[in-house]
Amino acid sequence: PDAEYLESIFDCASYFARRTTDLNLELPYYDQATAFWNVTHQLVTDYLGLWFTDAEAALADVELQEFLVHVVGSLDVTAHLTHLVREMDARKRYAFAINVVCRLIFAVTAHHEAYGSVAVYAQDVSFCSFSWPKGEMCGTKITA
Superkingdom of this entry's organism (predicted)? Predict the structure, then answer.
């Protein structure tokens, strides 16, 4: 369960698909975010492919491994899971590295633009606990 949880934090496409299923609701925000994630994922995959010939080569890169451990250890929700990064096999850790870099790019681009204005994209702010539309008398279902 911990390994699946760790991977889910850094794989936005899977998260969006899971939320769509959980909510039984198609949100334009998730559709657009998934499309952007897929483009970013391909970009990072291609870019890392220029540096590493395969997953084993990436596994041998100590700086990449320490970067992954640092990112996981820096988040309150994953700090206790750094050992899982070190325990991943080469193939899984390389896929995880791609997702971590994508997640960071995603956070400072697509998500950065959306914070504070998610309601415009989602048209249903009930999924978003940090959004309280200006002028509304109450928060979302989650904040209630």
Answer: Eukaryota
The answer to whether 50 and 26 have CB atoms below 8 angstroms apart is no
In the chain, what are the domain boundaries? 2-127
CA distance 51 to 32: 29
Count of Cβ atoms closer than 10 Å to residue 6 Cβ: 21
Measured between alpha carbons, how far is 82 from 85 in angstroms, rounded to an integer? 5
What is the C-alpha to C-alpha distance for residues 109 and 76, in angstroms, rounded to an integer? Answer: 22
Q: What is the pLDDT of residue 25?
A: 81
Q: Say which amino acid occupies 89.
A: D
Mean pLDDT of the chain: 84
The pTM score is 0.75
Are 33 and 16 in contact by the 8 Å Cβ rule? The answer is: yes
CA dist., res. 38 & res. 43, Å (int): 9
Q: How far is the C-alpha of 28 from the C-alpha of 50, rounded, in Å?
A: 34
Please name the amino acid found at residue 61.
D
- Greatest alpha-carbon pair distance for the chain in Å reads 56
